[in-house]
Specification:
Helix content is 19%, strand content 37%. By secondary structure, it is α+β, with helices and mostly antiparallel strands. It is globular and about 50 Å long.
Length: 109
């Protein structure tokens, strides 16, 4: 591998590590009780046993499913996870924070 090839590979690897930290820069903190709710904003979200991408999937939350956020965790690389309870199914587990959106009840009709 050439020096330029190694340098390019290093830049790409660092970008992969830093992108989650840049995307989740702390602007989506859990709301105070009564300040709205969270829902799945992606097509679906795997609900996992723990906050690691390789852990066992124990359920699936669909787009629009309301969830109660009961805990959060940020990996050393910046990937943010939320421990949720899916209201529709009652399943509790961890999902990637980026798959959730906050909904404010005052904006509802």
């Amino acid at each position: 591998m050439t020096v330029i090839g190694r340098a390019a590979a290093t830049v790409v690897a660092l970008g992969i590590l830093l992108i989650p930290a840049a995307v989740t820069a702390g602007t989506d903190l859990p709301p105070e009780l009564g300040a709205g709710w969270w829902e799945v904003s992606a097509g679906a979200a795997n609900v996992r046993v723990d906050h690691f991408g390789e852990d066992t999937v124990i359920g699936l939350a669909h787009s629009g499913d309301r969830v109660e956020v009961v805990d959060t965790w940020t990996s050393p690389l910046g990937a943010r996870w939320a421990k949720v309870m899916v209201v529709r199914t009652g399943v509790s587990g961890w999902v990637l924070w980026s798959l959730l959106a906050h909904r404010d009840p005052s904006s509802e009709p």
